[in-house]
Amino acid sequence: MPLFFIILFSSITHAQDTSKAITKDFVLGKFDFKTDACFVKVAPELSNKTIYLQQEVYNSFLNMIAAAKQSGIQFTVVSGTRNFNYQKSIWDRKWKANGNLSPIENAKKILRYSSMPSTSRHHWGTDLDLNNLSNSYFESGKGLKEYTWLLEHAHEYGFYQVYTSKENGRTGYNEEKWHWSYMPLSSKYLTFYNAHITDADITGFEGSELASELHMISNYVNGISKATKAM
Question: What is the CATH code of the structural domain delimited by 3-229?
Answer without folding.
Answer: 3.30.1380.10
